[in-house]
From TrEMBL:
The keyword Nucleotide-binding does not apply. This is Rap-GAP domain-containing protein. The lineage of its organism: Eukaryota, Fungi, Dikarya, Ascomycota, Pezizomycotina. Transmembrane segments: none annotated. Keywords: GTPase activation. The keyword Ribosomal protein does not apply. Residues 908-1178 form the Rap-GAP domain.
Length: 1243
């Protein structure tokens, strides 16, 4: 046979012939030539492939192939044996096991393949599993499996041991997964069919562990092998060896990590299959101990595998076993394995520690396993015992980052029940720190979890004598650390609430730090977009501002509210706290433009509510009565409404009530029109939505908590003047009110935020009435007066944006209100400053429509308090009033001012006759205007009233409706009618008129539409007054002590109430049908129980009082004290007397419901009736009746003859307030104006 001859085929020969050929050629297997050996092997392979061989022939062939061969011939031998055994179907060619034949082929064939693989790898050729050699290697393993499982003869233990050893060599050397897979198949066959020799069992388990750990793609086959091994007779030995692998694990990396990992993975499979048939039992304690030793490797992959074992222990049937044991070590194993996510930043920097650092993938796997373990423990929580729950609690406290909110809640509630953070409990300090860092300060937790943790800490903190210990340990400092970086408003509210309680009991150093921290601006507010319209410097009037974007809540406001609570509580009952420090911090917040608007408003709300009693003790009031000014600044009129008004409208416009305030808005033309004449501007104006300041609407809950009604016992606005009183009391804390006044001045001058500026305007006047609060702030008060006067004079105050709906005149109303309160400080002002104040009020008459009423009332107070300054400017004041007298809404106030002036001769002492006539001219101008209105009301063609101003503003409080105006309700009409008659009554009671009778009478007579001279009934009565002086003291006859006149008899229209009760007086306190007006007098400050009673008239003169007129519903507010006024005790009687007289006059007019006829008008009518009867009796006489007429300005003169018409006088026009009568006289009407002769003449 040639060396390179092709393989010989024996298909043409019979079986016997083929065997004969083999017998002849069998020597080739042992030939020296390699080619000969190869040819012999090929021949053997061909012959073995025949299916018609006898058993003896097959035995002979098997004997031949059992001879040793070179590695290059092993693939051929393998194919030959596979063919001879017909793939395991006919393994009857040997009486012994065939393993001794095939086992020696394993390692040589593998080495040959390994060499070829290495060469191909160097050449860059990919691995090819389809080569004849690779296929033969796989066939060899399958042949071994067939031999082990199908051959009847069991292999000897030595043969199995040899097989395993060869397989171990392959498994430990190969890098091809297919080799491992084939080996696993052999292992499984050995385990399933025969017994693994004891000498090889440990090595087999070692290899299985390595495969399980290193080749995850073969996890399924490996697990099947392991499970079969666990179900074998050697299961106990297997479990013991696995424990040994873990318990003997060295700390260093000497032992193969894969063995340890594999052992852990096998335990995972065993735990997962626990309870299944044939699976071994596992000791819980021994398993935990083994896993604990495995953690010594400090390898992330091993830790991940251990956590997976622990997870399986909490699931399936093994959970019942685990619940029977203590979980302390179990939790310790979990915590040790999770160390990379619990402490992600190792403290040491040596080489070993750096090598122990795992990749992010390992950490994510550990975190995922911890999350699953926590979920399993949560599901098992109801079945856990008390100690087990404590162990789980410790675990949850450590792995807090992987907990869900529900799991964290379970842990925290158990922590609360067990009171593990309370002083005296074991390890309360580390537990408290874990609670602090892992839950309270962990901003990645939900607010609910953090709040629950904070509640637990608060419970521990509030136990007896615990607060100081917690503070000393630094827990409060930890709460304050990075406080400004907090982002959760919900949690911050709870934290600040707790810090408030801490502040009330901590030492001075901690208190200062706490206050400083609460004052910090939160960083979250710095990056938050401010959607408040007040932050926009100019807002286009063509766009409306949605109310939802008015102001977003800020975190700084939460902190500020905490400061407010501390301040409120520090006033009463907390001697260790310095409220002055908190007061200054609140001022810093209020004046800082960098702070969020709502935080500044919260500070302003408490600052403007600070008051002091008569002894200087500080307290805070819950609400402030500034409704009038609030309504002025809270305009929300929609100009698209039919009832809306604009500045450029004509005078025939109908008045309209403000939807917010219920008052009329009288706007000055000089403030500039909101709507332009151009069509485009008009269309833009129709889209405008006016917005109120953001603080409107929440004033009922302005403070975070209700302040105590009692004043502070150690915080004062000023020190007592008596040194004895100072020495008897504990040291007092003075509130730096002067600093607050300086802040108010700065806000008035430089504030650009409309919400802040409007709030100061609305509440400043109310606080200034508390006069004693500013006793130590006189320089600042003087500066405030100067600033207010300067802003009015130069119109330098802030002009509101168009989208606010507020006009410049409305701002002036608020400034004048504050300036009016400053009149009470006039004794501290120089004469020039008093003069300037009066001139400033004078500017308010006519400059802005809205300010006239308030300025007239302020001047009425100045007439009493600063009479010299009023006298100096009186002529200019009267000139201003004369120019606005025709404005019906302020006419009553002007006349009331003149009535007051008439009773103060020292004020008008410098007026000349022509100037006095100016006063009467004002009154007469009103009569003329009122008369014109009545005529127009009776004229069916007069459909509009031209007497009202062109712009309505929040400055007018009374309803300015005219009698007979369309659309007016019956109540409004009656009120207007009463007001008209009242004002008409006031007109005839102004100043001394003895030298001006003729001048006055000429102007009381007017010519009607028929050309006749007419004089009204009231005018006739007034003329009679001017010539008579009536005095009576009958009411004093029965009251020698002058006390009965003060008694309430039940039918008084006006009650003067002196209120020193420190409480509000209800209007119906004295409830009668005649209650119309209460004039309430109360001290400017709450009466202190320590106040020294007033014993001398000088002390009374130096005290100050608040006078306020409270009317029943439906009454217009006419009095200068409709808005509270501050009056000195020296001028109190005169001021209240005038208010009461005028209120009584209007009440008398209003109480009748219809036409009011005074006693003097009734007297006139009776005289007329008497005259008519006398005239009728003499009608039949042939002689003409001659009446005696007296010259009106002389009392006892000779009568003149006047011819009286035969027909009775025609009935003239009737006024709204009384009967009128026309006198038709051929000659001068003055000849009929002395009514006294009709009653005094004799027949």
């Amino acid at each position: 046979m040639k060396p390179n001859a092709p393989p010989v085929t024996c298909t043409s020969f019979g079986a016997d012939q083929a065997i004969a050929i083999w017998d002849a050629a069998s020597y080739l297997l042992d030939h020296a030539s390699a080619d000969a050996r190869k040819a012999g092997s090929n021949l053997l392979e061909t012959i073995c492939g025949r299916q018609d061989l006898s058993l003896s022939a097959r035995r002979d062939l098997y004997t031949s192939m059992s001879r040793p061969c070179s590695p290059d011939l092993i693939p051929s031998r393998v194919r030959a044996l596979v063919a001879l055994a017909d793939h395991g179907r006919k393994i009857d060619f040997s009486d012994d096991s065939a393993l001794p034949t095939v086992v020696p082929w394993i390692v040589p064939l593998y080495d040959s393949l390994a060499s070829t693989r290495a060469k191909n790898k160097k050449l860059g050729k990919p691995y090819n599993s389809s080569t004849p050699e690779e296929a033969a290697f796989g066939d060899l393993f399958q042949l071994i499996v067939d031999i082990v499982t199908l051959q009847r003869q069991s292999p000897a233990a030595a043969d199995v041991e040899s097989l395993l050893e060869n397989l171990f060599v392959v498994c430990k050397s190969t890098h091809v997964t297919g080799d491992i897979k084939h080996s696993l198949a052999v292992f499984d066959a050995i385990i399933s069919s025969i017994t693994v020799p004891s000498s090889s069992f440990s090595a087999l388990l070692d290899v299985l562990c390595s495969i399980h750990a290193s080749i995850k793609s073969l996890a399924g086959p490996t697990s099947r092998v392991v499970r079969n091994l666990a179900k074998s007779k050697s299961q106990k030995e297997m479990v013991g060896l696995l424990h040994a692998f873990l318990l003997e694990t060295p700390v260093g990396p000497d032992r193969n990590l894969n063995v340890t990992r594999g052992a852990v993975d096998i335990f995972r499979d065993l735990v997962a299959g626990y309870g299944q048939e044939g699976m071994p039992s596992l000791s819980f304690d021994l398993l935990i101990s083994s896993l604990q030793h495995a953690t010594n490797k400090n390898d992330g992959r091993i830790d991940t595998d251990i956590l997976e074992v622990c997870l399986n222990m909490l699931q399936g049937d093994y959970l019942d076993v685990a619940l029977q044991y203590n979980w302390t070590n179990f939790v310790l194993v979990i915590l040790t394995s999770a160390r990379r996510v619990i402490n992600p930043r190792p403290q040491s920097t040596d080489t070993a520690s750096s090598k122990a650092n795992t990749s992010d993938d390992v950490k994510s796997n550990i975190s995922a396993h911890i999350t699953r373990i926590a979920s399993s423990m949560e599901a098992t929580w109801p079945r856990l015992g008390g100690n087990q729950k404590i162990d789980v609690l410790h675990l949850f406290m450590k792995v807090h980052m992987q907990l869900t909110p529900s799991q964290a809640e379970l842990a925290l509630r158990l922590l609360s029940v067990q009171k593990l953070c309370h002083i005296g409990c074991t390890d309360w300090i580390p537990t408290s720190w874990e609670l602090m860092h892992n839950f309270i300060l962990a901003r990645d937790k939900t607010p609910e979890v953090r709040i629950l943790a904070l509640d637990i800490y608060k419970d521990a903190y509030r136990t007896e004598d615990a607060s100081s210990i917690f503070d000393a340990e630094g827990f409060t400092d930890a709460l304050l650390h990075n406080f400004e970086e907090e982002t959760s408003a919900t949690f911050l509210r709870e934290l600040v609430s707790f810090l408030v309680t801490v502040a009330l009991s901590c030492d001075e150093q901690l208190f200062k730090r706490l206050i400083d921290v609460l004052t910090l601006q939160m960083k979250a507010d710095e990056i938050k977009e401010d959607l408040s319209p007040t932050s926009v410097s100019s807002h286009p009037v063509s766009h409306s501002i949605p109310l939802t974007n008015v102001l977003l809540p800020s975190l700084s406001n939460v902190s500020c509210l905490g400061l407010v609570r501390i301040f409120l509580r520090s006033l009463v009952g907390h001697p260790s706290i310095n409220p002055s420090l908190v007061f200054e911090k609140l001022i810093d917040i209020a004046r800082s433009p960098q702070r969020p608007c709502d935080a500044r408003l919260s500070a302003l709300k408490v600052l403007f509510r600070i008051r002091c009693d008569s002894a200087g003790a500080i307290y805070v009031i819950p609400t402030v009565d500034s409704s009038f000014l609030i309504n002025v600044l809270s305009r929300t009129i929609d100009v698209t409404s039919r009832q809306s008004v604009t500045e450029d409208s004509s005078s025939d416009r109908k008045p309209r009530n403000d939807s917010q305030s219920g008052r009329l808005s009288l706007k000055e033309p000089s403030s500039g029109p909101l709507v332009s004449d151009t069509p485009r501007a008009a269309s833009e104006s129709r889209a405008v939505k006016w917005n109120s300041p953001v603080w409107i609407g929440d004033e009922s809950n302005s403070l975070p908590e209700e302040p105590l009604d009692d004043p502070s016992d150690r915080t004062f606005a000023f020190l007592p003047s008596s040194t004895d009183e100072q020495s008897e009391q504990s040291p007092r804390i003075l509130l730096p009110v002067n600093f607050w006044v300086e802040t108010v001045i700065a806000l008035l001058q430089r504030e650009k935020n409309w919400d802040i500026y409007s709030y100061v305007l609305a509440y400043l006047a109310a606080q200034l009435m508390n006069r004693e609060l500013f006793r130590n702030s006189m320089p600042q008060i003087k500066l405030l007066r100067s600033v207010l006067c300067e802003q009015i004079k130069n119109e330098s105050f802030q002009e509101p944006h168009g989208w606010t709906g507020v006009k410049k005149g409305d701002i002036a109303v608020c400034i004048f209100a504050a300036l009016t309160r400053l009149i009470g400080f006039h004794q501290h002002f120089a004469k020039s400053e008093q003069d300037e104040t009066v001139r400033t009020f004078m500017l308010g008459i006519g400059s802005w429509e809205a300010t006239a009423r308030g300025c007239i009332h302020a001047l009425a107070v100045c007439c009493h308090e600063t009479p010299l300054s009023v006298t100096k400017s009186l002529h200019a004041i009267l000139d201003k009033m004369s120019k606005v007298m025709t404005r019906m809404h302020i006419a009553a106030h002007i006349l009331e001012f003149l009535a007051l002036l008439a009773r103060l001769p020292d004020v008008y002492v410098n007026l000349r006759d022509e100037e006095i006539r100016t006063v009467f001219g004002i009154c007469l101008r009103y009569i003329e205007s009122s008369r014109e209105q009545r005529y127009k009301a009776m004229d069916p063609l007069a459909t509009r009233s031209a007497s009202l101003p062109t712009r309505l503003s929040g400055g007018a409080k009374e309803t300015a409706s005219t009698p007979g105006a369309s659309g007016a309700s019956a109540v409004d009409a009656n009120t207007s009618d009463d007001l008209s008659r009242y004002v008409y009554h006031l007109t005839y009671h102004v100043m001394d008129r003895s030298n001006h009778i003729s001048w006055i009478i000429k102007r009381l007579v007017f010519t009607d539409e028929a050309g006749k001279e007419v004089i009204e009934e009231q005018s006739q009565v007034f003329m009679d007054f001017m010539q008579r002086v009536v005095f009576s003291d009958l009411d004093l006859a029965a009251d020698p002590y002058c006390v009965k006149k003060k008694m309430h008899i039940g039918n008084d229209f006006v009650n003067i109430i002196f209120n020193r009760s420190n409480k509000e007086v209800a209007f119906d306190t004295i409830l009668t049908q005649f209650n119309f007006v209460n004039v309430v007098i109360s001290p400017v400050c709450r009466v202190s129980p320590k106040e020294v009673p007033i014993h001398s008239i000088e002390d009374f003169y130096q005290s100050f009082y608040i006078v306020k007129v409270v009317s029943k519903p439906g009454f217009p507010e006419l009095s200068p004290a409709a808005m509270p006024k501050v009056i000195s005790g020296k001028n109190l009687a005169a001021f209240v007397r005038l208010i009461a007289l005028n209120a009584s006059a209007f009440s008398l007019v209003s109480s009748r419901g219809g036409e009011h006829v005074s006693s003097w008008q009734n007297r006139l009518r009776e005289i007329r009736r008497l005259r008519d009867r006398a005239f009728d009796a003499s009608v039949g006489s042939s002689d003409a009746t001659v009446e005696t007429v007296y010259v009106p300005h002389r009392r006892h003169t000779k009568a003149a003859a006047v011819q009286v018409e035969e027909t009775p006088p025609a009935q003239g026009l009737r006024a709204n307030f009384g009967a009128e009568r026309n006198l038709y006289i051929d000659n001068n009407v003055f000849q009929n104006l002395d009514f006294s002769r009709w009653s005094n003449s004799r027949p």
